[in-house]
Description:
By secondary structure, the protein is of the alpha/beta class. Strand 20, helix 18 and strand 21 form a beta-alpha-beta unit. The longest helix has 20 residues, at 118-137. It is globular and about 75 Å long. It starts with a strand and ends with a helix. Its cofactor is FMN; [4Fe-4S] cluster. In the N-terminal section; belongs to the NADH:flavin oxidoreductase/NADH oxidase family. This is FAD-dependent oxidoreductase. It comes from Cellulomonas avistercoris.
Amino acid sequence: MVMPPMHVGFGRRVEEREIAYFAARAAGGVGLIITGTMTTTSRFEDNEGWPKVEDDSVVPDLARLADAVHAEGGLLAGQLTPGSGRVGPAEPGGDVPVSASATPWLADPSRSCRELSTGEVEQLVADYGPAVARLAAAGFDAVDIHSHTGYLIDQFMSSVWNQRTDRYGGSLENRLRFPLELIAAARAAAPDLAITFRLTVDHHMPGGRRLEEALEMAPVIAGAGIDLLMVDDGAFETVDWIFPPYYMGDAPLLPGAAAVRAVVDVPVMATGNMTPEIGDRAVAAGEVDFVGFGRALIADPDLPRKLAAGHPGAVRPCIRCNQLCVGNILVGQPLGCAVNPEVGIEAHLPQPAGTSRHVVVVGAGPAGLEVARVAASRGHRVDVYDESDHAGGVLWPAATPDFKRELRRMVDWWQGQLADLPVTVHLGHRITADSPELRDADQVVVATGSVQLVPASIPGTDRDDVVDVLQFHQGAPVGHRVVMVGGGLSGSDAALELALEGHDVTVVEMLDEIARDMLLVNRITLLRRLDEAGVRLLTGTRVREVTDDGVLVEGPDGPATLPADTVVLALGSTPRTDLLTELTAAGLPVEAVGDCVEPAKVGEAVNSAYALAARL
């Protein structure tokens, strides 16, 4: 198992927070950790979020990181880049980035990048070796050459971005010259360091690399003296392939890695929504030699040790939501995790409570279960009450499609954790302000969630053939022709689920975009899958009435009636505050968390619940 490079955003220098983060993953048993991107020079780019390895002043901090990882039994590689080129910021003192050629700048395609001169490319190579030597001086075990998904090195490798006429452009041999010179510079600067290299086998974009060309490149790169070839897909034009969301299912990049493994004689690693089971089979079959777990090791740093001990059910699953890992990094925020609130605070975890208290949690959804877990782990006695017959709140019914099954695994994980803690979960048990169960509670936490919005302003929403999206997830019968009223995240996901089951689905959204409340990385895949499933999307369209003939709507082309056997309302939710109001009025010691405060996504509920429980 390898933890592939993922940017952490903890600062421009390696400090305590980052050291503790990586040390926790090493302690969890992963064999090799690769840091996020570090730059070898700021001559042509000053990327705010990337640490620099361009002078010897950084060696002591890097050494502390290497020592911490080694102390926990892990190996450490540093990912080094000469720059991001067209996908990064403008060069210092300029108004556009540099690149292999004068190709469009990703941030503003109307403007072209400045082509690096031959001498400047040679300077980038000259700067690379000393940076690698600094890693060696700090005690690193390997250097990873940042060469994939459309960053600067990949821009030289790819004909779609490289139109040079010097010795670094044109033929495949010339386009590979820059990365091969970087490999040679790394080997010369630090002969004892292993070298890893990441090759994108399919950009999934017009003019980009396809597998056939990657299979020509791979043996040349492997023969240049690398020790591990990591294989992936995507580019920033197709960013969802770089960070595959849950819609892509398991191991979408494994076929490309297996194809590369068949043509090279160095070890190959697959990444991207890998599972331990698939990884086991792939290694046993000789398809790959190493398996990369990135987001999975963010979610649970102890994943390797738990598997080695024969406890796969104890692994906290990554739900592949991209919300606080990829999402945070893309907006310049430090790395987080929707299911693991301890990411980034490994050096300052909550301590045991000074006094054990009796905590009553009302609501067994994500927020309530997380409060119970953390409070009990700190020494409190916890009782959880929920009027439903199953824990998980809305997660459990909402996670019925296969592409959301990790959400149900998350509920199973919480239940497994609570079984080993002083927590009693009471299902099918409604709590009111005068319930005797509250009498000896030192602290009551209300996590009762939200209720679906059903607007009275739309006539006909009280008909028998109209259900809300939660009722659909709970098993309400749905006819063949479905009109989904509301194209946010919940409505769009439900529309995809229905379409995959064979229903004829139309989504009506009054805004001009579908799933506007969604992370862009995930939205790209969702829209593609909705299109593939034949879902009709009507944006800028309002529902006026539900009638015997169907759904009367008004859009850019005027009024129309959409035939429907079932109408599903996905118009959002509102906090369920009745119990909170009653308990507060009764003077009980009460806190509220999750959707009953403000409806939000899973990650926000879990992280706020952790913070609340940490201070009880």
